[in-house]
Amino acid sequence: MSGRFALFRWSQSLATLPGFPVGQAPHWNISPGNQVLFLRHVGGELQAASGRWGLTPPWLNDLSKSPAHARAETLSEQPMFREAFRQRRCLLPANGFYEWRGELRKRPFWLTGEGSLLHFAALWEAYPAGDQVYLSVAMITQPAAHLRRPLLLDEAQQHAWLAEDTPLAQLQALLLIPTPPLRERVLANLVNDPKLDAPECLTPA
């Protein structure tokens, strides 16, 4: 499962988007429950926002059960994700993500793309609480051999995913796109500590 990723470097064009958080800090070890940067369309305009990684629909009573992931194969049918899939799609920018492999002793791997940023398909929700509205997201994952990985979108697919008028059939087709080729390297075990959020997370084995 894609339980950790990193966003420690971004472009100037991303940093100048409306809603980009003031003082956005670099992170090397983002886990479910953390605040994450995400991109969405608001009135047809691309905007940035910050939300909790763990989807909290307005009707959810037990916030401890907020899912961090949504399976691409079933999200269009599940009540937790169905409405957000149709109306509240977003992207999670990342420099890469971590993957643990092995039978007895799992080793962490760092996976990146050709460019400086990857974009994960995701869903967002707004949770009203008193006079505050809290935003949250769920990462969409797809099967990759015996693992699950984020659903990665290229530039054209990103536009289609965010557009409010994309037909449902096209959205469902995006859920089936294969994982593109990725670069990977095995890491030391420092990243295993979820409290470590520093460049040392990427220390090679």
UniProtKB/TrEMBL annotation:
* Gene Ontology molecular functions: lyase activity; peptidase activity; single-stranded DNA binding
EC class, as a word, reads hydrolase
- What Pfam families does the entry give? SRAP
Q: Which UniProt keywords apply?
A: Covalent protein-DNA linkage, DNA damage, DNA-binding, Hydrolase, Lyase, Protease
Q: Does the keyword Lyase apply?
A: yes
Q: Which InterPro entries match?
A: SRAP (IPR003738), SRAP-like (IPR036590)
Enzyme Commission no: 3.4.-.-
Record protein name field:
Abasic site processing protein
Q: Which family does it belong to?
A: Belongs to the SOS response-associated peptidase family.
Q: Name one GO biological process term.
A: proteolysis
Organism of this sequence: Aquipseudomonas ullengensis
